[in-house]
Amino acid sequence: MTSPLEWTSTQQRIKLLELMRTLAYREGDFKLSSGQTSSYYIDSKKVTLHPLGALLVGALLLERMPESAIAIGGLTLGADPIVTAVSVVSVLKRPEKSVGAFIVRKEIKKHGSQQWLEGFTLPAGSPVVIVDDVVTTGASGLQAVEKAEEQGCQILKILSLVDRNQGGRELYEKRGYIYESLFVVDDFRTQAS
Of 17, 19, 24, 137, whose CB neighbour count within 10 A is largest? Predict the structure, then answer.
């Protein structure tokens, strides 16, 4: 049996989509972190904290990162397992050019070092990628971008697992950021029907 890391990108993406459809995608009445209501919900942590899901997320996102990026980070909590997965997979797939992971807090801690960014040490000018699990309006990703830039990071790209197609892409592109998602919501609706 071959390791999922040896599968083609297409095979990895197909299996990840299957996991996302069966474990993460739900229909019903939901309130989103953006405050909007929705007839569906994507609980990505059901997949990003799953052993195979984490491995596939790490491999597929690593593939989409610019070679010059030294780290990947995002806003806690949705990004936490994703940045860890990408960092671990980077050591397995390209140990000579592994990628560090960092987390952006939603509010500064009141004790200890009182930092916004936790994890991998990022010198000023560090080229990084920001990741979000599910993008709706883009506000969460933008919050992570702004905090990373305040710490002197250079944002090369914003990545996400899923784009709900509700304005996030437009916000990022309007601000001049390169944005890419693994999936869009229609990938789930078409398959789940």
Answer: 24
